[in-house]
Amino acid sequence: MRNLLNNCGSKMTTKITELFNIKYPIIQAGMIWCSGWELASAVSNAGGLGLIGSGSMYPDVLRDQIQKCKKATSKPFGVNVPLLYPNIEEHIKIIIEEGVKIVFTSAGNPKTWTSHLKQHGITVVHVVSAVKFALKCQEAGVDAIVAEGFEAGGHNGREETTTLVLIPQVVKSVSIPVIAAGGIGSGSQMAAAFALGAEAAQIGSRFVATPESSAHINFKNAVINTNEGDTQLALKQLTPVRLLKNKFFKQVNEAELRGASVEELTTLLGRARAKKGMFEGDLEEGELEIGQVSASIKEIKPAADIVEEIMKDFTDTINRLKKLA
User: Domains of the chain (ranges plus CATH)?
Assistant: First the structure.
């Protein structure tokens, strides 16, 4: 597998590590309420690519986060921007003014901002859940694609395609590099994605349970106590989102089972549910977004340790498989 068998302390060479000039093909997902400058800089300093999750930030907060991240790391980092964010124009303006060189976009049409960002020398990556959207991204001129499977936490695709099915289909359909996401929290899982043609892995849930994550400690503890089957996709009539089962989830699930209208679900969701759960630590009334891989996360540990652990496991897995060939 090209130069992938190097010692995990050495730089790996893939299309994505070259694109971002990073040591390891590990991307920390830009998760709302969890991915501030501390987590992004920690992952970047450890050799991956850290992302600030701007979807939960007011424009002035985003600017402050970017400035703090620039002081905390000399390594590349980026910003994740949900395109449906109401202050998107201000966010884009701040990103350009602050000299951010990498932007991951999601939840919208990549044609809207890709060319504008690239005109300012910014590398653009878009997140998709289906081949048809990957093709639109390529047409829009993005530099790479994140193909995110059904297992992922947070907002998800309506197609409910799993990562193992999605990745090879997207890789086959486009000529630009593909980053695998959804259900990846270990080096062996990352190796499986590479076997399917991915050039890197985007990892979210595993980095929630870190000291550097801006998530509330209550949420972090809930994550490490999660078991198989404790998450489920909900709110499919609005925007599908994978949630940890709690009182709020049960209310949503009961409403959906009896055929609640979009208006009723919107009212039930209300405002700031995600902030209440993930940032403020209300484990009953809050919206707790996390992936299926959370069931295998059993301790809170520094982001740098996680990167090192994943890379060792990845290398060990590749070497083990090489012996079988």
Answer: 15-214+300-324 (3.20.20.70), 217-293 (no CATH)
The pTM is what? Answer: 0.94
Closest CA to 204 of 8, 19, 16, 53: 53
Instruction: Please give the Cα distance from 53 to 142 (Å, whole number).
Output: 19
Structure-token pair, residue 165: 């099915």
Q: Determine the residue type at 166.
A: L
Would you call 253 exposed, middle or buried from its count of C-beta atoms within 10 A (0-12, 13-18, 19+)? Answer: middle
The tokens 């595993």 sit on which residue?
206
Helix ranges (DSSP H) in the chain:
15-20, 37-45, 59-72, 88-97, 114-119, 131-140, 163-173, 187-195, 205-208, 217-224, 247-257, 262-269, 273-274, 303-324
What is the C-alpha to C-alpha distance for residues 305 and 303, in angstroms, rounded to an integer? 5
Closest by CA position to 272, among listed 70, 26, 32: 32
Q: How many CB atoms lie within 10 A of CB 106?
A: 23
- Burial class of residue 137, CB neighbours in 10 A (0-12, 13-18, 19+): buried
Tens digit of each residue's pLDDT (9 = 90 or more) over 88-121: 999 999 999 999 999 999 888 999 999 999 999 9
What CA–CA distance (Å, rounded) separates 159 from 163? 12
- Contact predicate 199/25, CB 8 Å: yes
